[in-house]
Amino acid sequence: MPLNKSLRTTLLTLTWLPVLYTFTNHGYQPYQIKGSSMTPAFNPGTSSTTRDIVLVQKFDIKSRNDSIAKGDIIMFRSPLDPEKLLTKRVIGVNGDHVHPRSPRYPKSEVKIPRNHLWVEGDNSFHSVDSNEFGPISKGLVVGKVVMVLWPPSRLGQDLTRSI
Fold first, then answer.
1. pTM of full prediction above 0.90
2. Partners of 141 in beta bridges
3. Catalytic residue numbers?
Protein backbone atom coordinates (compact mmCIF):
# COMPACT_ATOMS: atom_id res chain seq x y z
CA MET A 1 0.00 0.00 0.00
CA PRO A 2 2.75 2.60 0.79
CA LEU A 3 4.29 2.03 -2.64
CA ASN A 4 1.01 2.83 -4.36
CA LYS A 5 0.58 6.00 -2.32
CA SER A 6 4.13 7.24 -3.05
CA LEU A 7 3.77 6.33 -6.73
CA ARG A 8 0.49 8.22 -6.89
CA THR A 9 2.08 11.27 -5.22
CA THR A 10 5.00 11.15 -7.65
CA LEU A 11 2.72 10.90 -10.69
CA LEU A 12 0.53 13.72 -9.40
CA THR A 13 3.62 15.90 -8.91
CA LEU A 14 4.89 15.09 -12.40
CA THR A 15 1.56 16.08 -13.97
CA TRP A 16 2.00 19.61 -12.57
CA LEU A 17 5.46 20.12 -14.12
CA PRO A 18 4.10 21.11 -17.58
CA VAL A 19 1.75 23.58 -15.89
CA LEU A 20 4.59 25.13 -13.91
CA TYR A 21 6.81 25.25 -17.01
CA THR A 22 4.09 26.94 -19.08
CA PHE A 23 3.28 29.44 -16.33
CA THR A 24 6.89 30.55 -15.83
CA ASN A 25 7.77 30.68 -19.54
CA HIS A 26 4.58 32.30 -20.81
CA GLY A 27 2.85 33.86 -17.79
CA TYR A 28 4.80 35.31 -14.90
CA GLN A 29 8.33 34.60 -13.73
CA PRO A 30 10.44 35.92 -10.85
CA TYR A 31 13.85 37.39 -11.72
CA GLN A 32 16.70 38.71 -9.61
CA ILE A 33 17.86 42.23 -10.48
CA LYS A 34 21.63 42.65 -10.46
CA GLY A 35 23.59 45.87 -10.69
CA SER A 36 22.89 49.49 -9.89
CA SER A 37 21.60 50.84 -13.22
CA MET A 38 18.01 50.97 -11.94
CA THR A 39 18.74 52.43 -8.48
CA PRO A 40 16.65 53.68 -6.65
CA ALA A 41 13.79 51.68 -8.23
CA PHE A 42 15.72 48.44 -7.65
CA ASN A 43 18.59 47.54 -5.32
CA PRO A 44 18.41 50.87 -3.45
CA GLY A 45 20.69 49.74 -0.62
CA THR A 46 24.34 50.67 -0.54
CA SER A 47 25.37 47.06 0.09
CA SER A 48 26.48 45.12 -2.98
CA THR A 49 24.73 42.05 -1.57
CA THR A 50 21.28 43.65 -1.87
CA ARG A 51 19.44 42.23 -4.86
CA ASP A 52 15.76 42.73 -5.51
CA ILE A 53 13.59 39.95 -6.87
CA VAL A 54 10.82 41.11 -9.19
CA LEU A 55 7.85 39.51 -10.92
CA VAL A 56 7.94 39.81 -14.72
CA GLN A 57 4.78 39.53 -16.83
CA LYS A 58 5.56 37.68 -20.05
CA PHE A 59 2.16 37.18 -21.67
CA ASP A 60 0.46 39.70 -23.97
CA ILE A 61 3.60 41.86 -24.22
CA LYS A 62 4.19 41.74 -27.96
CA SER A 63 0.64 41.20 -29.18
CA ARG A 64 -0.81 44.66 -28.47
CA ASN A 65 0.71 48.01 -29.36
CA ASP A 66 -0.29 49.60 -26.04
CA SER A 67 0.99 46.82 -23.75
CA ILE A 68 4.25 48.72 -23.10
CA ALA A 69 4.02 52.43 -22.28
CA LYS A 70 6.36 55.22 -21.28
CA GLY A 71 7.38 54.82 -17.65
CA ASP A 72 7.08 51.00 -17.65
CA ILE A 73 10.08 48.94 -16.60
CA ILE A 74 10.88 46.11 -18.99
CA MET A 75 13.29 43.20 -19.15
CA PHE A 76 14.86 42.58 -22.56
CA ARG A 77 17.74 40.84 -24.29
CA SER A 78 20.75 43.11 -24.76
CA PRO A 79 21.25 44.08 -28.41
CA LEU A 80 25.00 43.89 -27.73
CA ASP A 81 24.91 40.42 -26.08
CA PRO A 82 21.68 38.39 -26.52
CA GLU A 83 22.68 36.07 -23.66
CA LYS A 84 22.37 38.99 -21.24
CA LEU A 85 19.06 40.24 -19.82
CA LEU A 86 18.78 43.95 -19.03
CA THR A 87 16.17 45.81 -17.01
CA LYS A 88 15.44 49.44 -17.96
CA ARG A 89 12.65 52.04 -17.97
CA VAL A 90 10.84 52.89 -21.23
CA ILE A 91 11.43 56.55 -22.10
CA GLY A 92 10.09 56.60 -25.66
CA VAL A 93 7.80 54.48 -27.84
CA ASN A 94 6.93 54.29 -31.54
CA GLY A 95 6.92 57.79 -33.09
CA ASP A 96 8.23 59.69 -30.04
CA HIS A 97 11.13 62.13 -30.30
CA VAL A 98 13.81 61.56 -27.65
CA HIS A 99 16.88 63.63 -26.74
CA PRO A 100 19.69 61.22 -25.76
CA ARG A 101 21.40 61.96 -22.43
CA SER A 102 24.82 60.86 -23.66
CA PRO A 103 26.91 63.39 -25.59
CA ARG A 104 28.55 60.41 -27.33
CA TYR A 105 25.29 59.48 -29.09
CA PRO A 106 25.61 60.58 -32.74
CA LYS A 107 22.30 62.50 -32.89
CA SER A 108 20.85 65.19 -30.64
CA GLU A 109 17.29 63.97 -31.31
CA VAL A 110 16.03 60.51 -32.22
CA LYS A 111 12.63 59.59 -33.65
CA ILE A 112 11.71 56.14 -32.34
CA PRO A 113 10.98 53.79 -35.28
CA ARG A 114 7.92 51.55 -35.52
CA ASN A 115 8.03 48.59 -33.10
CA HIS A 116 11.01 50.04 -31.21
CA LEU A 117 11.53 51.49 -27.72
CA TRP A 118 14.00 53.91 -26.15
CA VAL A 119 15.08 52.60 -22.74
CA GLU A 120 17.23 54.12 -20.01
CA GLY A 121 18.35 53.14 -16.54
CA ASP A 122 17.20 55.30 -13.62
CA ASN A 123 20.83 55.64 -12.51
CA SER A 124 22.30 57.17 -15.68
CA PHE A 125 25.93 57.08 -14.42
CA HIS A 126 25.86 53.28 -14.14
CA SER A 127 23.64 52.32 -17.06
CA VAL A 128 24.28 50.82 -20.47
CA ASP A 129 21.07 51.65 -22.32
CA SER A 130 19.68 53.23 -25.51
CA ASN A 131 22.15 56.08 -25.07
CA GLU A 132 24.78 53.48 -26.00
CA PHE A 133 22.99 51.21 -28.48
CA GLY A 134 20.01 53.25 -29.71
CA PRO A 135 16.34 52.21 -29.85
CA ILE A 136 15.66 48.53 -29.21
CA SER A 137 13.29 46.30 -31.13
CA LYS A 138 10.17 45.14 -29.28
CA GLY A 139 11.22 41.65 -30.38
CA LEU A 140 13.98 41.74 -27.73
CA VAL A 141 11.49 42.32 -24.90
CA VAL A 142 11.13 39.38 -22.50
CA GLY A 143 8.52 40.96 -20.25
CA LYS A 144 7.33 43.85 -18.14
CA VAL A 145 8.26 44.18 -14.47
CA VAL A 146 5.00 44.35 -12.52
CA MET A 147 6.11 44.23 -8.88
CA VAL A 148 8.91 43.79 -6.38
CA LEU A 149 8.71 40.44 -4.55
CA TRP A 150 11.82 40.71 -2.38
CA PRO A 151 12.73 42.22 0.03
CA PRO A 152 9.39 41.96 1.82
CA SER A 153 9.59 45.57 3.01
CA ARG A 154 9.28 46.68 -0.63
CA LEU A 155 6.64 44.15 -1.70
CA GLY A 156 4.19 45.80 -4.07
CA GLN A 157 6.15 49.07 -4.31
CA ASP A 158 4.89 51.46 -7.01
CA LEU A 159 7.35 51.24 -9.91
CA THR A 160 5.75 53.80 -12.21
CA ARG A 161 7.36 57.10 -12.88
CA SER A 162 6.01 59.82 -15.11
CA ILE A 163 8.21 60.55 -18.10
1. no
2. 76
3. 37, 88
